[in-house]
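ok here's AMP deaminase, seq below lol
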Amino acid sequence: LRFIKKTLKNHADEVVTLHKGTPMTLKAVFQSMNLSTYDLTVDMLDVHADRNTFHRFDKFNAKYNPIGESRLREVFLKTDNYMNGKYFARIIKEVASDLEESKYQNAELRLSIYGKNRSEWAKLAKWALQYNVYSNNVRWLIQIPRLYDIFKSNKIMNNFQEFLSNIFEPLFEVTNDPNSNIELHKFLTHVIGFDSVDDESKPENPMLDSDVKTPGEWDDEENPPYAYYLYYMYANMTVLNHFRKEQGLNTFVLRP
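and the structure came out like this:
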């Protein structure tokens, strides 16, 4: 809330997003929602977790959008937006400096990799290094939403193997040759592990046996079960960790 108010006061005329192809300033974004700085309250932002948040995934997801507006999430909480994640980096740096000041508090913050395409890692690392979102009191955990079915239905990919390749191939490449992407190499030294996120309350058929399709054959419209996702994340990470260890690099943990 402090950050949004401060930014509205000092950078109201900064262009922050494109709406139907036309540039919009921060002031215009808030005007389009009939809001001024005086209207904003913590309750109105509605991003704090309460009891219901952890039982209902839809409610949990809604908390990502300040005031329930996806446009505000895009402006303030994304690394990949019109301003290349400038505001998000500033918020993180403010949080980090608070942590450093209090000395004995550490935070483990999440960043998302979706497995949508292979350039995601490079973009994320570029953002992290450009804005230097580094702190001794902060470590990064990468969360991977289980969205294969959505990518498949939007014809972004043909099978589950493409999803896995988009996530892990860039990591194997940069482990093999850090100079192939020095930004990603540096960023990974501050990443401690991976998390798998989605709605765990969805009923699914968890049957995994020897006949189950391999990722290259999994071209169904529906999502593979949770156990399938985790098995292939674990399998890829195990090999990656052995490889990184041989190269004298840090390794990752799987913490779904």
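fwiw The CA atoms of residues 30 and 98 lie 28 Å apart. kinda neat tbh
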